[in-house]
Amino acid sequence: MIGISRTTGQMLTGWAYFVELASDALTTPLGSREKQRLYGSKLPSLLSKLNSNDTLMFAQIYATQTFYEPNNLLDQLFTVEQIVASRTDSGISVSITGEYQGQRTNFEVPINAA
């Protein structure tokens, strides 16, 4: 698996590229891509809500849905074990733990209002 970082333009492979794919899927509003309406996540819609416990619960649900949506291409690469959402100064942070290529690993994706 080879790709290009959307922030630096450098070539990415393996785990770094997967994290880039997952971050893109989680931060892209569902339905915002013209020819791929099922790509993305409902997570960005939570940014206009208050960061209550209910919002964090929905963030965890929406993040899980993102990983199991076939159009995001994440379900074949990563098995989700746990997703925890937490408040930040500028939005929500989602911490994801799971299995990638036989190894247990975790990463964090900020869902920021800015």
Largest sheet, spatial ordering of strands: 3-4-5
Shape: globular
Q: Which secondary-structure class do the elements indicate?
A: alpha+beta
**SSE order:** EEHHEEE
Rg (C-alpha, Å):
14 Å
Uncertain residue ranges:
none
Major beta-sheet overview: 3 strands, antiparallel
Overall pLDDT, averaged? Answer: 91
The number of helical runs is 2
Strand content: 25-35%
What gap, in angstroms, lies between the N and C termini? Answer: 30 Å
Q: Give the helix level as a range of percent.
A: 25-40%
What is the total tally of β strands? Answer: 5
Structure description:
With 114 residues, the protein is α+β, with helices and mostly antiparallel strands. It contains 2 helices and 5 strands; from the N terminus they run E-E-H-H-E-E-E. Strands 3-4-5 form a 3-stranded antiparallel beta sheet, with helices on one face. A two-stranded antiparallel ribbon has the order 1-2. Strand 1 (2-4) and strand 2 form a beta hairpin. It is globular. It starts with a strand and ends with a strand.
